[in-house]
Amino acid sequence: MSRARLVVWGGVMVIGMGTLWLASARSASMRETEIALGRAERLLDRGDVGAAAAVLTRLVRQQPRCAGAHALLADVRSMQGRDAQALEHYRAAVELAPRDAQACYDLVACCVAAHSYDVAERYLVRRLRDEPADLYARRLLALVRDRRDRG
């Protein structure tokens, strides 16, 4: 084999090994994320909201692009009456997973509770632009507009 081919095949091997390493690291990270989410859910089932919040806060710091961690932390913050933080995490969940209907509905519920009707409307309009057949989003939008108009 020529020297040029050896160099090319050596480069292919390095890239292949790097890809395998990244896939392995990614799957390990996904397992750790799933374990942490499961632990937080078990803590919530037992009523230990503070410990669940700590687990989820750590997870969000380690995995800031994990929509599920943001959504669950938003639920926890809402349970704790920390609506501004809940809204921040619901928004992150929707931005990270824009097609997740439940994340959008949770965000809208938080906005309605905080009387932030314009924000709720904006996310529902976006949801309907992406999913025009979402009848629940249409009903929510009508409710949001009605509440806003009643002032």
SSE order and pairing:
Blueprint: H1 3-45, H2 49-62, H3 67-79, H4 83-96, H5 101-113, H6 117-130, H7 135-150
Feature tags:
mainly alpha, Serine Threonine Protein Phosphatase 5, Tetratricopeptide repeat
Structure characterization notes:
The protein has helices at residues 3-45, 49-62, 67-79, 83-96, 101-113, 117-130, 135-150. It has 151 residues and is an all-alpha fold. It has a single domain (3-150), classed as Tetratricopeptide repeat domain (Serine Threonine Protein Phosphatase 5, Tetratricopeptide repeat), CATH 1.25.40. Helix 5 (101-113) runs parallel beside helix 7. 26% of the residues are buried.
Q: Please name the CATH architecture.
A: Alpha Horseshoe
Radius of gyration: 21 Å
CATH topology: Serine Threonine Protein Phosphatase 5, Tetratricopeptide repeat
**What is the count of β-strands?**
0
Oligomer: single chain
Number of domains: 1
Class of secondary structure makeup:
mainly alpha
Q: Any idea of the CATH class?
A: Mainly Alpha
Which percent bin holds the helix content? over 70%
Strand coverage percent: under 5%
* Secondary structure tally, helices: 7
Provide the CATH superfamily. Answer: Tetratricopeptide repeat domain
What best-fitting shape do the alpha-carbon axes yield?
globular
N to C succession of SSEs: HHHHHHH
Determine the N-to-C terminus distance.
79 Å
Largest sheet: none
- Quote the average pLDDT: 86
Low-confidence stretches: 4-14, 20-25
Task: Give a brief rundown of this model.
With 151 residues, the chain is an all-alpha fold. It has helices at 3-45, 49-62, 67-79, 83-96, 101-113, 117-130, 135-150. Residues 4-14 and 20-25 have low confidence and may be disordered.
